[in-house]
């Protein structure tokens, strides 16, 4: 079975934005993959003027929060690294019990990579000195910068949501038949990886993203 | 396949059901987030069966509403969608075009009309026996409205025969068109539709309509057609399109697309989102704020730290700020005080009770008039040089005055002007009159005291602020001022309007109660008001006053009664020992004319007055000697 991979554009976020950005992306993907009966819940982001949709599943929400906590933890331990969070969907196949193995095999059919680059922006009082006007009016120009960054991130985030919608629309054949009526119809897992060591891989991904094609590996 | 109910049906029937159901479901999804009647946001999770759809074609019955079971998506009730659902069940091969329309009210809005509620514009349905489509009402009738289609959703089933030119690889694999696959893909399609509906800019408008208690200047409504009304080329250029990937079925494909305006903020007159803290820096950097920043550099003596500044209209006072300092050379607390009341009363825009009483018919116009007044003033932003304020206010002010002069109320107030009650005198038109007088008076060096009026009475009415703010007009050219006040003087003191000298007379005349009251008004604050007049001028004024003092003597009553401005009577005045200076016949005639207005006095009173005059005279003489 094909495993569709979707690499989402890297987002440059500040520490305090991590949680909302991840929530928004993860829930949006999961809403598209929760093909059982769901009662959607619309959530307005606090930091951005964006509304996203949750499945309204408490268990799912809890699990996502857990993973976000883990992610933030890792970011704090390894600052200045590009961090990746991967959401995978799989099917469970009971492999025929062989001599030693009686294990459950996971057949991944879709993986979403969310790339976050957590930046450490200096506080206004120790403003970057590369702008001469900072010296004149540090507070104002810093807040202007901040506003601009926030707006840029908001539009990037919106772009990512559009990307998710497009991906979901274009790739439908690989989605397995709906196994049950539960809201969260497919098993999934969320993994976190720090990809700073694999600079080559990131470069590859970047190049792929720049060409505009959705990355697909099989 | 467990999720697909009705699996006992044969394949084509299932397919048809799916196609049939996708229309109402997508309509429901769209309207739920575009039609501001039902909130989709305060979703409690408990859905009542308040309006079950009896004609649902779903055969299954369970605890979950059949409507929700379709495509495994539980939606909230949306009457607007439910009303239309059955129609689409019957005619599934017609395209369904949902236009989301932004209706914008013009300025003459009525709160009751703008309240966020569902508005469904009636629409005739050609080709459907003129089926009237929720011709509920046009709630915006009677007002000027601007409509703009901000979104157009098109749900369409393209049958195999019609899509020959579509070139889509339909039915490549038989598995991909099985009813279960189509159903799954439909679910996916509707999921992404659901997310998309929340992502487009129109949702923000909807959200604001739903969330805020304020009355908005716009509303959202929708129109449902079975055909596409083509956009103009320009409209089309403004819109972006998103085409959902069609769902292929065994005999055609389901298409869903949306055209939307990427930005609706320019369409809606107000910010579509509450201002977030991030916007405040921009706000501070705005021209308005710049004005505030620039302000301290203006050399204003009375710019106390507590200088009150109406945020919104502050610019209009700025005009006056430099002028008192330059026009009146002394830092007068009077001005800052009156400015304080100005900004207060302007921001509040509440006329005091007596104004309401007096000018009840005029009160509704108060605000507008004030605005007009504001608008009239040239914004100092556009006059970059701190040029003498003489010229800035002059012409607009005279226009304003002329305009207000024509108000029917001014006449009444003018007649009331003799009453010494301060508030009455400061009803707006009257205040103009006073300004006019002061404007004229200040030209005569003797009586350049006008600010006492503001000091005494300023700030008691929103009109008073006009008088106080316009007092710097002392520097404006006199001719327009006189022109504009001419009528007033004709009304209440016609004889005095002829010449400047006569106006001086009017001020210095210690006779009538009216004049006396004014006189005291002018006189008393002489010490308070630190404006320095030249000694000579003062002496001259006093001499002039003495010259024109009413005649004394036993025959005063006669003079009053028989004063037909005869020269003989005038000459009799010369006999008075105190009238040392020679007086022209003209002057005496004038004095008689004025004395005619006076009530007759007793001799004792006259003597008392005489004593006062001589005392004043000696004082003045002393001062004059010292000055020499």
What does this structure look like?
The complex is a heterodimer of chains A (218) and B (628). With 218 residues, chain A is α/β, with parallel strands linked by helices. Chain A has 5 helices and 7 strands, in the order ββαββαββααβα. In chain A, helix 1 runs antiparallel to helix 2 and helix 1 (18-33) runs parallel beside helix 4 (138-170). Chain A starts with a strand and ends in a 7-residue tail after the last helix. Chain B folds into 3 domains: 11-41 and 53-260, 2-Layer Sandwich (Cell Cycle, Spindle Assembly Checkpoint Protein, Chain A), CATH 3.30.900; 275-533, no CATH class; 535-628. Chain B has a 6-stranded mixed β-sheet with strand order 2-6-1-5-8-7. The interface between A and B is large, with 40 and 43 residues.
Number of strands of chain B: 8
Gross geometry of chain B:
rod-shaped
Give a quick account of the main beta sheet of chain B: strands, pairing sense, barrel closure: 6 strands, mixed
Low-pLDDT runs of chain B: 1-7, 38-62, 108-142, 162-173, 268-532, 554-597
Helix/strand class of chain B: alpha+beta
Mean pLDDT of chain B: 55
Low-confidence region ranges of chain A: 125-129, 211-218
Number of domain modules of chain A: 1
Radius of gyration of chain B: 40 Å
Q: Compute the number of structural domains of chain B.
A: 3
Keywords, please?
heterodimer, A: 218 residues, alpha/beta, Cell Cycle, Spindle Assembly Checkpoint Protein, Chain A, five-stranded mixed sheet, two-stranded antiparallel ribbon, disordered C terminus, B: 628 residues, alpha+beta, 10% strand, Autophagy-related protein 13 N-terminal domain-containing protein (chain B), ATG13 (chain B)
